[in-house]
Design brief:
Elements: H1 4-20, E1 28-33, E2 46-50, H2 57-72, E3 77-81, H3 88-95, E4 100-107, H4 109-117, H5 122-125, E5 128-132, E6 139-143, H6 151-160, E7 165-169, H7 175-187, E8 191-195, H8 199-207, E9 213-216, E10 227-232
């Protein structure tokens, strides 16, 4: 039997290789692993449990992870979608699984705030947090097909029409929602937060003109010329965008 140190080093080495490829959105892989036999592990697929439905950014990221994993380790990784309760459903799935190293939990920074707000902060301590791969700045994304999509225009419209703006994003209570509230407070904006099951669904709401702004990460705007980064929480604009 090998100690947990082997398991930790296995994933740390693997994740460092992935980081060098710069493929991932900010998220954390966590796992529970004790008493894994080196000669026998893995003898079945390793699950990456994600907290969104198919199409969410963490879901897409996890699937990229599985594609790259085949190049680095002799193991099969599969993605399992367990949406609900801001990530708690997926988290419970991992915590209730055997402590054998076959279940990873993929999440974003938003989940941590949700766990604390939901009074289940002890869940955080129940996991072994392996690595944080990247921290993307938060940003406000708009739809160029809306009549209002530039940042200053959004601010002006909000001040002239208090309470009329709908902002969209993932579930209530996460980092995106908190960022939106901080922005509203800073600019004296009175707006409503319309949560969706995943970032992908929230962007669909934005593209359907059912929201004036989406709060998320810069990568959320990739691949669609109609999506525009109106503001970014960084000291300077990002070169790629």
């Amino acid at each position: 039997m090998v100690k947990m140190d082997y398991w930790i080093e296995f994933y740390k080495t693997f994740i460092r290789n992935i980081m060098m490829k710069s493929l991932f959105q900010a998220f954390v892989f966590t796992f529970l692993a004790f008493g894994v036999a080196l000669a026998d592990f893995p003898d079945k697929p390793i699950k990456i449990v994600v907290y969104t439905g198919p199409g969410g950014l963490i879901d897409i990221t996890a699937r990229k992870f599985t594609a790259v994993a085949y190049k680095y380790v002799d193991a099969t990784f599969v993605v399992e979608n367990k949406p609900g309760a801001g990530g708690i459903v997926a988290l419970k799935k991992v915590l209730q699984a055997p402590e054998d190293g076959y279940n990873l939990y993929a999440c974003t920074k938003s989940n941590i705030a949700k766990f604390v707000l939901a009074g289940v902060g002890n869940y955080v301590d129940a996991l072994h947090w392996t690595a944080m791969l990247m921290a993307d700045p938060e940003c406000v994304i708009t739809n160029k097909k809306n009549s209002i999509y530039e940042w200053q225009a959004i601010v002006n419209h909000a001040k002239n029409n208090p309470g009329e703006q709908n902002w969209v994003g993932p579930a209530t209570g996460g980092l995106d929602h908190i960022t939106a509230m901080k922005i509203w407070d800073k600019y004296n904006i009175d707006a409503k937060w319309i949560p969706s099951e995943s970032g992908g669904k929230a962007i669909a709401e934005l593209l359907g003109k059912r929201g004036i702004a989406y709060v998320g990460n810069p990568r959320d705007a990739l691949g669609n010329p109609d999506l525009y980064i109106a503001a970014v929480s960084s000291s300077q604009r990002l070169n790629v965008f």
